[in-house]
Description:
Blueprint: H1 5-8, E1 9-11, H2 21-25, H3 38-52, E2 59-63, H4 70-80, H5 87-93, H6 102-109, H7 111-114, E3 116-122, H8 128-142, H9 147-161, H10 168-184, E4 189-195, H11 197-206, H12 214-225, E5 230-237, H13 241-244, H14 250-261, E6 264-267, H15 272-282, E7 283-285, H16 291-306, H17 317-327, H18 332-345, H19 352-358, H20 362-377
Parallel strand pairs: 2-5, 2-6, 3-4, 4-5
Antiparallel strand pairs: 1-7
Helix pairs in contact: 4-5, 8-9, 8-10, 9-10, 10-12, 12-14, 15-17, 15-18, 16-17
Bound molecules: adenosine-5'-diphosphate and magnesium ion.
Magnesium ion (MG) is lined by residues 18-19, 70-71, 195-196.
Amino acid sequence: MKTLVNEYVGVASRFTRSVNLNADYSRETQDYGYIVTGNVLSSLTQILSGLIKKGGQKSYCLFGLYGSGKSAFAVYLAQLLSMDNGQGQKARELLRGKAIDPKIENFLTDRNKSSYLPVLVTGRRRPINQLVMESVIEALRQLPGRKDNLELLNELEEQLKAELWHDSQIVLQAMDKLGIASKKAGFAGVLLIVDEAGKSFEYALSDREGGDVFILQELAEHAERLSKYSMLFVITLHQQMDSYSELLSRTNRAEWAKIQERFVNIRFAEPASSTIQMLAEAIKPLKSAPKDVKQALERVIKNLLKMESIIPPGLTHESFAKSVHKAWPIHPTLLLALPYIFKRFAQNERSIFSYLASYGVTGRLAKMIFGFFECYVLVLDGFNGAERIE
Ligand SMILES: Nc1ncnc2c1ncn2[C@@H]1O[C@H](COP(=O)(O)OP(=O)(O)O)[C@@H](O)[C@H]1O
Ligand SMILES: [Mg+2]
């Protein structure tokens, strides 16, 4: 009888879909599963250093391929700075033992300073002013139902209904009122995240007036000059901002360039060593690998490690061996090659993780990754299981 590969392994649930900022922020998961990679840690350090420093940078633009982990990072950041003791606590625990700046460590332990009310926007083909206004209202609903908060909620809901958000000043004022209310509720301020801001840029190309993205610049400037409360502003894009503006007239392009200047760009791209570790985490064992497979893996690891510089920088021999066992049935040689294969041949600029996400159904994922595996496994010397597993 044939044994199918997907009887042995599945894909960890967090990798079976791409992250949605709003839905994933409030999702309680048993298996938190976020991995603080080198890239995550350095991005976090850059952002939090700016936040802590008086007069430091408060607005950032994360850009990178589909599936490079921008939304997952945005969720992690929002949870890390949240007042919540569940997911927030888990997010903070992940930093334990990591080499982080003591200033940031102190900041994170002082919850008065590091609790930020999240205002989460997921870009859609709608005017960005409206989306921000809706998220401000949503954030306000999370605050305690004090009388003044309820009055403010009514006021903003009226404004939303009357579509007053066409005027960016109204949106800016709403954000400011929310900031003040957040401070009263014990937060240090607000964390505004616009995930998939590119959708707003695309929308702006079709509806020049209604879709105006000038609010992004106004909000960024607002975040820089605050004193009553603090504001951190993060947007994510799949490409650099100027790629969107190629279709604009020269005047509009100059305006968009000005918006861009307000943000510090952080490139999201994981080095090969992190991709290997993430792949290993993504493959979830359903039952233990057969003994002959484990032995075969050990042999291949041993042979591979004899080759000079085969392991990418950032991965020790031990961590590579650990990843190999976790990533079975991906052949160790393929595991080493996959990050480079995807970098080179990424279809439509998608990363390996967007593949994992889109091949959610285990069977289909198995066909994709293990399709490679089939040809590799047959050359695995002494791998007796090869005929049984397809
Ligand atoms: N650091 C990480 N730890 C664990 N999973 C991650 C990490 N970064 C990304 N992922 C997973 O990779 C997939 C793609 O990430 P996502 O944030 O949706 O990418 P992007 O927003 O850049 O398109 C998701 O399934 C997500 O859960
Ligand atoms: Mg995303």
